[in-house]
Design brief:
Elements lengths: L1 E6 L6 H17 L4 E4 L26 H13 L2 E11 L2 E9 L5 E6 L5 E2 L2 E2 L14 E3 L2 E5 L8 H9 L4 E5 L3 E3 L4 H22 L3 E4 L2 E4 L9 E4 L3 E3 L5 E4 L6 E6 L4 H8 L21
Parallel strand pairs: 1-2, 2-3, 9-10, 10-12
Antiparallel strand pairs: 1-17, 3-4, 4-5, 6-7, 8-9, 11-14, 12-15, 13-14, 15-16
Length: 291
């Protein structure tokens, strides 16, 4: 399955961001892409660096203007498209939501981000209600897509539940970067950990992993921090955690990768982790903490 990862920087101009994405989608589709994955909250700068009620004006319903815009692109180019939107579900109720659009432009399914961070420059709990759709792969013409979003990628439970529900691939739209006061050594450790934990999900579940991040520096409007330098490095790992492709740390890039979904069957025969799980011994995983 020829898969495209579109790694982009974002400007304050929403229409400009969408048009640049449209151009990239057309470009990768012309090269044969069947599945196209965009980064987290790609229509706008990462507005969660501050808590500001005016930012709720950026949210929109699903279906809505963006699903119509990107659905038209999916149909025009005949691709399955994973997009990431700020969803206005009801007055006062908002989610960070991934939408999968079929190649005919229809909505194949949605996933609402379950794990919501609340850290300096990542004040997402102010904006997003945790997801309530569970961890269920979305059926498409190219396979069953186990889509999660950013902070979800640090948690093995979601990846495992997607695998147990029959996902063919794990997909993580992302917006993550460095705070400029971090030392170069600390920055390197963070980036390595981010990639390593997701490659671990690939190994533990025998599934390929796609992670798409943004690039560029985005200032903190409040001035409390020096903003975020998004570290790019979008990548694809195979079902043994092998790195199949990796994008630039600093530049926009369209990354095309041919992913063989059939390899998971063979890898799981070699490493039968699902066979050997002790499901009778894991009850305490539901506890917040074990004394």
């Amino acid at each position: 399955m020829l898969t495209a990862l579109i790694q982009q920087s974002c400007t304050p101009n929403v229409e400009e961001n969408k048009q640049r994405l449209a151009a990239s989608i057309a470009e990768v589709a012309a090269q044969g892409a069947q599945l196209v994955v965009l980064q987290e909250l790609h229509n706008t700068p990462y507005f969660c660096q501050t808590e500001c009620v005016d930012h709720f004006d950026l949210a929109e319903p699903i279906p809505g203007p963006s699903t119509e815009f990107f659905g038209t692109l999916a149909k025009r180019h005949g691709v399955v498209l994973v997009v990431s939107l700020f969803e206005r579900r009801a007055p006062g109720l908002y989610h960070n939501t991934a939408v999968v659009l079929e190649h005919d432009g229809t909505i194949a399914g949605t996933y609402r981000k379950n794990h919501i961070p609340d850290d300096p420059a990542y004040y997402e709990k102010f904006y997003f209600t945790p997801g309530d759709l569970g961890f269920h792969p979305i059926e498409t013409s190219v396979g069953r897509l186990g889509v999660q979003v950013c902070w979800d990628q640090w948690y093995p439970e979601g990846a495992r539940l997607m695998a147990l529900a029959g996902a063919d691939i794990l997909i993580y739209p992302t917006a993550i970067g460095y705070e400029s006061s971090d030392t170069p050594e600390e920055q390197a450790r963070q980036l390595q950990a981010w990639q390593m934990v997701q490659r671990g999900h690939a190994v533990a579940n025998g599934l390929p992993v796609v992670a798409v991040n943004r690039v560029g520096h985005e200032p903190d409007p409040s001035g409390q921090t020096n903003g975020i330098q998004f570290w790019g490095s979008s990548f694809v790992a195979g079902p043994q955690g092998e790195l199949l492709a990796e994008a630039s740390q600093s530049e926009p890039e369209n990354l095309l990768v041919d992913i063989d979904l059939r390899r998971s069957e063979q890898v799981r025969r070699w490493w039968p982790f699902l066979r050997d799980r002790r499901i009778d011994a894991y009850q305490d995983i539901l506890l917040r903490f074990r004394d």
